Amino acid sequence: MSTPEKQAPAKADNDANEAAGAAGDDNHEEAAEILTDLVQNQMSLSSNVAEAQTAALQQLLQQGGASASKQQNLQALIEAAMKGDVAVQQQLTGEKKQHAFWDTQPMLNSDSDDKQDKSKKAIGNNATSQPDPNWHKPIVPDKEKEDLRQEPYNMPKGFEWCEVDITDEEQRTEIYDLLYQNYVEDDDGTFRFDYSRDFLTWALTPPGYLKQFHLGVRSSKSNRLMALITAVPAKVRVYREEKDMAEVNFLCVHRKLRSKRLAPVLIKEITRRVNHTGVFQAVYTAGVKLPGSVASCRYYHRTLDARKLIEVGFTRLAPRMTMARLQKLNKLPAAPITKGLRAMTPDDVPAAHKLVVKYLEKFQLAVVFSEDEFAHWLLPRRGVVSSFVREDADGVITDFCSYYHLNSSVARNPKHNTLNAAYSFYNVAKTVSLTDLMKDCLILAKNEGTDVFNALNLMENSTFLEELRFGMGDGNLQYYVYNWFCPTMQHNDVGLVLL
User: Fold this and answer.
1) Quick one: which of 24, 61, 229, 408 has the most CB atoms within 10 Å?
2) 289 and 396 in contact (C-beta within 8 Å)?
3) What does the pLDDT look like over 291-339, one tens digit per residue?
4) Considering the entire predicted model, what is its pTM?
5) CA 161 from centroid of its chain's CA atoms
């Protein structure tokens, strides 16, 4: 039961949708061969040979239509690999990265992934293939409570465990400060998630939440909160199996303590505590590729305030693109176009709950909301979550859309200190197209002061991304199911959105 770092606030990749063409594909394939040879033999190549191969590689990429930014990124990879950077060499040559902690955990491994890929290929070729008899089972069997570790894991000297009370204003501020100063940020430190106090309360207090799952580490000397990991209860369906699970989130260690390797201890302790409640599976996401991901989704971004996004460095003007033209391309109507679309109220919960739960049945990894859980997660909260229903002339709830608000702080910018972002949550289109419904979502978010609207390519989101001018982001979000053996799945098989 675990969570590594989440996906950092991703920047828009304006080059992501450029077509290379058939000739470009051939050049890129040849370039990959040169690069692999260059990296694998970097210890024995003379500098003249290395320089010649590097020059040939760059020429091929230029001929293949690679953008200047991609060429620069590749040059940086080459230089790092030639200096002996093992992680970069593994990235370029496809070698398996070793994970001292994660390789010991009950997760899908590369061997099982390979088996599943071969099985899927066989099925696709109409060959006979039997599913693995171990699929849809725990990797490690459940244990009786008396067989579990009874004592908390040991902390390094000078630190001690604590349970953090999110309902207490002072402790809620401690959580906010720890996350704001030490949690997820992009590679150059420009954008950092800024979870509001109201957002944290919402995220950590669903029906049935347990205070002992809000686990912190304090300094024994100063009593300062130095690390955090949290879990909340959820019922999740993986393929046809519904399981009580923990949604694990907010793994955060103070920057000054990263060398103490507290994260594995935090993960093992939250696992122990969850196990003691009779739950042995968990679900979590990460922006990094670790052993055992069940699916991989991509972030897409839709510009709502073009000028601000360029001023903060979230995106940039493409060649021959002017600010005026970019603003015109991304302009939206002033009001939603779907008749009968309005904010959801408590009276709408029963009907909206049935609509969403039924819709989620078509996906292979999905949350199974109770009505109370649906009300907690989806009823509108100002600045936290926005939800809308379409009511027809007979008073029937026919369609539903929602998004949550998660801003990022902006560093080193003289004009802006906050990037206002909305994230697509759960959406069901029955009487209108999903594209039209999501266009209304963009309009509603824009009217709430949002600068950028983000969406993963899960569920049926891919059907509207291109038409509504979403641009591909620069990172993937990996989905993991802890201690559960099942086939991997495609991004559009995922019907679960984690905060």
Assistant:
1) 229
2) no
3) 899 999 999 999 999 999 999 999 999 999 999 999 999 999 999 999 9
4) 0.81
5) 28
